[in-house]
Amino acid sequence: MKKFLLLLICIAMTFTLVGCGNTNTGNEEGKTTYAEEVIVGYNNDLDTADPYQSTSSQTHWYTNATFRTLTKSNYDTGELDPVLAIRWEELSGNNTHWRVYLKEGVKFHDGTILNADDVVFTWNYAKDAANVVKPIASADAMVKEVVKVDDLTVDFILNYSIPDFMVYLEIKIYSKEAFDTMDKAEAGIIGCGPYKVGELISGVSYGLERFDDYYEGIDEFPTKKITVKVIPDLNIQVAALQKGEIDYSFRLPSTSYYVLESDPNLDFYTRDGVQSFYIGFNFRKEVWNDLNMRKVIAHAVNKDDVIAIHYEGGATATRSDNFCVPSGKGYVEVKAIGYDPEEAKRLLKEAGKEGMKVVIMVGKHNKAFAETVQNALNAVGFNAVIDEVDATNWTTLKKTGDFDIFVGDYASYTGALLFNFDRFFTVGGPSNMYGFVSQEWEDLIAGARQLNTYDEMVAEFAVLQQWVADNIPLIPVAVSKSFAAAVKSVKGVKLAPSDNLQEIYYLYKIVKK
Amino acid sequence: MEIFKRKKKTVQQPKAFEGEYVLDVEDLKIRYETDDAVVYAVNGIDLKLKRKQTLGLVGETGAGKTSTVLALLKLIPTPPGVVEAKKILVNGKDVMALSDKQLQQIRGNEIAMVFQDPMTSLDPVYTVGEQIAESYMIHDKLSKKEALEEAKKMLEIVGIPAERSGEFPYQFSGGMKQRVVIAIALACRPNILIADEPTTALDVTIQLQVLELMKQLNEKYQTSTIMITHDLGIVAETCDEVAVMYAGQIVEKGTLEDVFENTKHPYTEGLFNSLPNMNDRNSKLNPIKGLIPDPTIVFTGCPFAERCRYAKEKCFKQKPTVKHLSESHQVKCLRYDEADFKIERSLK
Amino acid sequence: MLKYIFKRILILIPLIFLVSFIVFALMDNAPGDPVRTLVGENMTEEQIEQKREELGFNDPLLVRYGRYMKGIFRGDFGKSIYGNKDVLKEYLFRLPYTVKLALLSIFFTLIISIPTGIIAAVKQNTWIDAIFSAGAIMGLSIPGFWLGLMLVLIFSVKLGWFPVYGADEGLKSYILPAITLGVANASLLTRMTRSSLLDTIRQDYLKTVRAKGLSERKTILNHAFRNALIPIATIAGSQFSGLLSGSIIVENVFSWPGIGTLTVTAIRTHDITLATGCAVLTTMFTAVTLLIVDVLYAFIDPRIKAQYTGK
Known about the structure:
The complex is a heterotrimer.
Chain A: H1 2-20, E1 33-34, E2 37-42, H2 57-66, E3 71-73, E4 80-82, E5 85-90, E6 97-102, H3 116-127, H4 139-142, E7 143-150, E8 153-158, H5 176-181, H6 184-187, E9 195-201, E10 205-210, E11 225-230, H7 234-243, E12 248-249, H8 257-261, E13 266-281, H9 291-300, H10 303-310, E14 317-319, H11 341-351, E15 357-363, H12 367-380, E16 383-389, H13 394-400, E17 405-411, H14 419-425, H15 439-450, H16 454-471, E18 474-487, E19 490-491, E20 508-512
Parallel strand pairs in A: 2-11, 2-12, 15-16, 15-17
Antiparallel strand pairs in A: 1-20, 3-4, 5-6, 6-8, 7-8, 9-10, 10-11, 12-18, 13-17, 13-18, 14-18, 19-20
Helix pairs in contact in A: 9-11, 10-12, 15-16
Chain B: E1 21-33, E2 38-50, E3 54-58, H1 65-72, E4 81-84, E5 87-90, E6 93-94, H2 100-106, E7 111-114, H3 118-121, H4 128-140, H5 144-157, H6 174-186, E8 192-196, H7 204-221, E9 224-229, H8 232-238, E10 241-246, E11 249-255, H9 256-261, H10 266-273, H11 313-317, E12 323-324, E13 330-331, H12 344-347
Chain C: H1 2-29, H2 34-39, H3 45-54, H4 61-73, H5 87-122, H6 127-141, H7 144-158, H8 171-201, H9 205-211, H10 216-244, H11 248-253, H12 259-268, H13 272-300, H14 302-309
């Protein structure tokens, strides 16, 4: 991804240089002209432009353009970048007192300037359940208080040591003055990003208009208007792209992967995503608490088969052995329990469970996945059946259903180090609904949280990743791939690993060179 | 182009025809060819209608009366119907040779028809005024407004108040509906009117009224009429001449006197005999034995032979031909070849 | 006539209660929790409870329903659970798109079915009749989404005559979705026209008309067809009112901002307020349309007009 951008920049520079030399093709100064508007296609309508009023992915990436956060996880480098927080210090020595320094002169869309009051206000607002959503779980458990030190300095006093606390400050900052002067609905859409809320036509389109007073200047943003058109049918989006009726889309059907890749009129982009696809266990059934039984499943399933059959031969996901996704912070390669059907049969026989019935719970969209697993399990001696359930019921069934294993997917938070594993494997974690309990894990994660420096945490995280690969509380199978396509005149494509992280505001369209 | 102000058109005078016979039909044969069988409805009849004459066409249901008159207007649907004749002349024009357009010109204009069931003869979605007016618009080329005016006049003539011209058929009783049908038929003053059992569907008291009306109008417009009926009483009331049909043939034809007083054909006799005797309430009814024959059968002999009390062997083998008993009276019966054959009714 | 119209409008009130209660109660009992889906996974159980309390979800069904209905009779249909949008405003914004599409679609349906139905009836049992009847069956069998996609592929992508998506380009945008919607209806209506006309062609009053000397063409059109119109108008009327509730499939394929998508999305996301609002508004609108169609009948068939006016 980075190399691609580099290449683009080189090409752009070359063109500029070439253009500067007088050519006789009738172009006055060799100046590139940009289109005023770029059109993006998406399949859902925007429910709200207020980042704290919805969990939908459209709200997420739309507000990526209109708001700025304090810090930002760079999904390409893995680094935590400063944004509105230009630098920070840890004052206590045990990771409980963080001082954050804010950038000066940042203008909000309502004309007011960013200061510490805005940060304090946003933090308190965001953890108040009266508002709809919270960006980070357990924010109130983490932080004791937030204090304004001066106009451009804020202190975060924590309840316990959190070495990677700055990661949790990737929160979009409101303008307090806006909330003081306007009503909630109007104030909640005011941010300090390079674009502000444009025309919103329900069910048809939602637009972004460039904010010319953006604090970093608008040189990087030649496009005045970015309009997102609502096109519910993904195949129609493909057709619209091919015909040039939209300029860019990152929400495309997996079946269009090869078509778009080979279309000469389009530029095609792809990268690894943030969704993990895995096989989970129902630990309430005694049998699955036996590691050897879990190993039978792990040895039985050929992950490459699943990729080939369910993920279009690798178009929409690639094989993964690690529950942590590649763009996740601290990702390392692990050694996983491999495909070995003979070993699976052996272990099964040892346990005396040949012919045992295994219920595979799956949502409709993962049917082919489940079928591949079913065949693999039957081949080693299980009696596997598929229980297809309605996705809207999933949450309830996770807790009460009578199943053995299930096919699940999970979109990781890439920045927070231990966050994803913690919520899945620790007792009481929000995603640990299947009753997994392991004292060994509890000790490991507690130990990891105690560590003092960030780097120590990263090293320990690598150990945790291998532990999961060895003890398989779930079996990672694949990680998603995201892909996008743009018409050839559109540049500035930054493809993020998940919808929530997309940054469409860099897009621009070259009209004349 | 409204440059020329439209002259107020008037309705034409009753049609006149100078020939002797307004209707001249020779050897009319009609059959219906269906997938299952061929139905021989009319098997060679001759009809001549003079000016201002009323001819009663009598016979049981299925005798072929309706088919005969429909052929005069060329309204027999020609699949499956097949119409053959030496000639069918209406006001001197050969109906079989006319184009569709020419036929449309004479229908309703020179020759009109009143149908049997007034309840279903009128289009339910148009007012009675509009339905009468339609005739004027087709033939006299009047504008809608003018036609509606004339229609109102016509309504008055048939005894319906003109204010009711805006009402729909469902708002009228059976008798009044029939008057409307008559008004439609006579609107363009045709000189030939065919009335197919016009009062059969009406109550007796209304019957009389409608027949009276028809008689008046016939007088007024000097129309020649064919009155189809199975009711001998009506024939007696309204007709000058009578033709008796059986199995698609005219078995006896003559003036009212000829047929009523001087009945010759055994079938006609049977018809008269089957009339209930008002004076002797206790006497038994006297129907003609048997049923009308199956129209798909082609007879070698006389079609009435199997029901005829006078039938002889020759009647089954030989087709009877027309025998003229006088200038006006003719009959189709083989027994009249014998010099002294008389039916019972003649003996009274 | 006015009394009749007034009575029909009065009936709307119990109808609205019935529909709204059914939708409200059904959605309430459906599996899935709108509050939980709304707030996502980052809230603790107590916070979810608090949110639920605040949104009023813990009150008993009848209380919530009563609150909702009181709002409706004031003209306030409430705010959607997702995005807090004014339900009435959302609905009314989308309604014209659906209505205009429905009108154009029924127009296509009528201009296709009536001539073909008449010809098929008049030329009954000939090869023309066979072709039209077979065509009608094909039209009924073709799935809407397939037809829509095919039309887009051929006419928008390959030929470029129409936009690929959206309702923005005026009449051009309406044509393909109107045709897609109209084909299935046209197939049914053609068969209906044919059979209705075959019925009326046999009627006695046509004999009277022909005997008047009216041309065959006018006999069929002015008299036979005019009478055949009654069942045709019934079917067309109910097809039109069906179109008014929006077609989720066509709206999906053509990215059409109609009320079908709005309603279905509301149901799918358990947005009770929005879903009930859509149901009630669509009911009202459909009922009024049906009333208009019924009144139009009175002009086609005078006997029906008499029923309405009580003569």
